[in-house]
User: What shape does this take?
Amino acid sequence: MAFDIHFPPPSPMAPPCNTLLLLSFFVFTLSIFSTASIHNHHHHHHPLDPLSLHELDRVRTIITASYHNISFHYVGLDEPDKSTVLSWLSRHTASKPPPRRALVIARLNYQTRQFIVDLSTRSIISDEIYGGSGYPILTFEEQTAANSLALSYAPFRASVSERGLKVEEIVGLSFTVGWYGEERRSRRIVKVMFCYLDGSVNLYMRPIEGITVTVDLDEMMVIAYLDRLTVTVPKANGTDYRESEQKPPFGPRLKGITVVQPDGPSFTVHGHQISWGNWEFHLGFDMRAGPIISLASIYDLEQQKQRRVLYRGYISELFVPYMDLSEEWYYRTFFDAGEYGFGLCSMPLQPLTDCPQNAVFMDGYVTGQNGSPVNMTNVFCIFERYAGNIMWRHTEAGIPGKLITEARPEVSLVVRMVSAVGNYDYIIDWEFLQSGSMKLSIGLSGLLEVRGTEYTHVDQIHEEVYGTLLAENTLGAHHDHFITYHLDLDVDGDANSFVKTHLQKKVVSDNRSPRRSYWTVISETAKTESDAKIQLGLKPVELLVVNPNKRTKVGNYVGYRLIPGSTVGPLLSDDDYAQRRGAFTKYNAWITPYNKSEKWVGGLYTDQSRGDDTLAHWTLRDREIQNKDIVMWYTVGFHHLPCQEDFPLMPTISGGFELRPSNFFESNPVLKAKPPTQVKWSSCPTLMTDLP
Assistant: This one.
């Protein structure tokens, strides 16, 4: 199996490692993995299972037998055609699953190569050289090497000495450089910037401004150096976020709280298949996307069968453009999945802090630059959430002589992963509700990227500084986060349509009612991709995916609707080079016909891409989408205007959306839901008068 399952220990684990320590651990793991034994589990894989440790090692063996000095940048499942998977499922999985294949993206002799490896025949069945724009994900190892090279560069050390800084307290960080209209570059490069420790582990709060070292990743050599100005490094005092370093006064300590399930969890895990309540789904891990939810179906009590809702869902890209136009900042327009690997940056989740006491943990596997597989421990936690929410209730006081109250507590199942892409920690939750809803949320925490400045008070500022003064010599840069989800909804089958339901005001011009206005519903079924592009917030609209071939008993089309959270769109101009690459954020929702090759909204090769392989480009074909197998792409956005409460570390801010049944069931599917068994406490106050 590609997951190991862990139950939490009885006591808390050590605090999570920071990203730089994880890089060191990752490289160390690679160095020892070749001597470790890999156990081959003799069982049939589900067609959508991610590659196991054994399979990843086999891929490395097959590729390196034919190619030497090759650099692995992505290895993942080459998923079978959707029709093949659905056909296999329709036979109740009794037949042999389709062949297992791996997609490999690598660098060799200054070229990007794309392989398909057949694991059953142990052979390379496709080998292509990519000649277009863009490059693959950066590896941890080459980032570490570039940072070390820059730190040892003689002109850099001279600049450090002139500033009176200790070189041993400096940390290098590799930044992708984007694209700004140049002809296609012949070099893969990063710009290495620097931060200062010396009294704090919060390196992002202590930037060394003005120095840039440009490194060629293929040659691993410095190709440019710039020391253009000297700025005061922000002080270390007040920046350390570790509990052990905090000084009084402290906030009040709350009394103990936990979640206890004396009978164990209500969900079961078989390989990658998870069953809970009326839900069944498949959970996978990918080094670029992170968590992938597949084949999500819900049991219909009335129809007495599982009904599919989602074929495959995951985060396709995270676009993070900064608004600072200065020399060291203008190119900071990051694509966290396509440039750095969202799954590759996943962190080991900590019991009792990242996840509650009742969580179960799972590992995932990635590949290092030399092709050796690496076990990423505790990348997922799965737990049942009960936070005192109410699933449904009603009190009826209108019947004379009676008071009727019925209520049901809300219990849900959560799948969580945390990815620390540099300074930001992204908390990804997939939450399944008994009502048939899926809530997808993303929380943003971690550290800001700040720019050093000579300003110590806002009254000194009389120019555009592209941010907020958070502390002395510390500017928090304005920036955005756009998280785009791939949602291959299969609402009770794979032939679906997209319906925009507009809420329209009607004026009453006759005497049929004392009222002067009301609103009504105007529904429009999108026929082609251009019909389905939606910018939310301009006017009220409901977004539905329906199955036009299935109706309820009273004649409504069965469907699911998307309920947005806050609606945010880009403010950059369409011709801005960063926005050309991130054009998939122009609309909150897009619909495309299913195409196995269309997975990454920013393009398969995102680093230094030019925007010619994005969702916006695909939809120029304006393909038919009515009563077809369709995919929804939905973007959650944040405009981040930093404030002092974000210093030195940000409290989590969250956003997301809900996929909710809309005439999918004949009636309320949780009307007959049984509440969980009550847990008896020996000494539990029930009245406020019992409390001290």
User: Anything to note?
Assistant: The longest strand covers residues 305-321. The CA atoms of residues 346 and 419 lie 4 Å apart. The radius of gyration is 27 Å. Confidence is low (pLDDT under 50) at residues 9-42, 685-692.
